[in-house]
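Can you give me the bound-state structure? Components:
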Amino acid sequence: VNNRINTFWKSYSIVVVVGVVAVGLSVFAPRFIQFENLMNVLSNASVVAVVGLGMTLAIASGNFDLSVGSTAAFASCVSFSLVPTLGVPLSILAGLGVGAIVGLVNGAIITELRVPAFIATLGMLTIVRGLSLIYTNGKDLYLYGNTEYKILSGNALLIPMPLILALVIAVILGLVVSQTRFGRHVLALGSNFASAKRSGVQTTLIIWGVFAIVGFTAALSGMIVSAQVLTANGRLSTGLELSAIAVVVLGGTPLNGGRATMIGTLMGALLIAMINNGLNLLNIPIFYQELTVGSLMLIALAINLSKGFKLASLFRRTV
Amino acid sequence: MISEKAVAQKNATVDWDVLWERYGITAVLVVAWIICYLLVPNFSKPDNMLNVIRQSAFVGVAAVGMTVAIMSGTFDLSIGSTLGLCAWTAVVVGASTKSVPLAILSSALVGILIGIINGLLITQIKIPAFITTLGMYFIVRAITFIITNGAPSRNNAKDFIWWGNGSVLGIPVPFIIFIVMAVIMALVLNRTEFGRYVYSIGTNDQAAWVAGVPIKTTTMWIFIVVSLFESFSAFLIGSRIYSAGPGLEPDFALNVIATVVLGGTRLAGGRGSMLGTVAAAILFAGMANVLNLMHTDSFVQRVAVGLVLLLALSIEGIRQRLFEMSSRKITKEVKVDKGPVSNPR
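Here's the bound-state model for the whole set.
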């Protein structure tokens, strides 16, 4: 029984923490519990959660993607620039396509040029950021009056669209990880690359797939942010990679790969969004928000020690 | 199955990889410098070339410390925000006490303190270094914003700005500091107990532990060294631009890591050279300078930095692939020569 409580606590501690924080906030800042504010928190959480879900898959496969912030900016710039010619639905698809292509390039650099994922995506971070600044010439792209694009950030039956998108992606990726061969192979790659390869897992294809999915989710996250303000620019989502990794870590996905929890990542994003919202409601300066992100990560990890993780394992040449 | 011929060939190629890792980037720097000297207008002017080496020092000094960390198989992401805090400390203390030594000392103390916190979290609470320093990146940034209230400070006292802008016998002061620190650290790494511990932890930390290397103490020192060198960089940057505030160069940590990696130090640890780090810092500074002279905008520079990094690091992988392709041919020939191949054990 003790053991069972332990495993239960390990997988659901974040849910308990989220609950406690929610109750605490509604006591100390009564406005927190109002419907509009709650929906606001959920939609803020979803923006990071979307890319965090993709990142969960990457971390479960034993890799990182540091280029997600730049990918988000590039995809939404391309998508916004295409709206006048292609119309909204097609340009959203084009943005997602751009994200997936950047992901595939990441995958190709890792498998074909044998650069460790950390460096490959670090290089792509600066390259893609540069590309999106060149593409927009450093200017903002506006979609004044074209509220059709708001489909990504508006409400559907009072529920914010970003939340629906985050939940859909969480369900899909959750099913992919637990029910499909691709998902099992991703986890196999993360827990032991060499033996996965020897047992016939097509490592190259899996890595390409994982990074394409991460690119796709990064693009979606960038386009949601751009849709909220109907503006895109090359500086969008700077630093998104670090917040995405923070959300995944808070959610309890171990850094050494082999396991993934999509619910945890959703909860991690929700926890950070709730605390930031609470600090705003309590009139605490915005500088304190980063303090909470940092300390939460350290506390979560200190409690939930991921034993056996070695930094060096991230820098092995894959394949 | 690899034939003897292939093994022999592999031994020959490994040498090339090691050579590339150790001296490749230095050779590239020399060749690129000569080409630019001859072809790029205005590059060859002494003032311009001195400016390039001056600029190389600001990332370079921090890269010297980061080389030690990466050689031991870890790194420090927190220096991106520690930079702002240390530079601000140096500027404010320098302005209020009118004493440069006190400015350097206070900024170094802040750096050492953060290094100790990083080291304690990693060695005592055993949080992975990646997460520790990522968390500290957020925390230190927030603290800097809270202390400074978001506003930068200024100090344009002559003796303070001399460190970033002055020259001795025509050579920029920051570059002299950079080279002196690189030489000292290279000696420490190659001649002292600490250096041997760093190498052994980076090569195989379990073997190092079994062999009695004091891993915890060494790790503590490594993180103190990284933060200390980063605080020198912070002081030089503050002195160079007369001011410092929060949000100074948020990408600093990634730039520094890119410089060290371009210099041939393995991210997995155990191998690397200070010479490469120095060459890589000068190469990045020179690249930015040449692109400026050719009137490309700063956006193109970002793309160029990323491309150079990826190119330099993919050379070993490409060589491996070429080798595997050729060795596959060799094994086929062997099969033809000897008829049916017996089962390898």
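A couple of observations. The two ends of chain A are 42 Å apart (CA to CA). Chain A touches chain B through 54 residues (CB under 8 Å).
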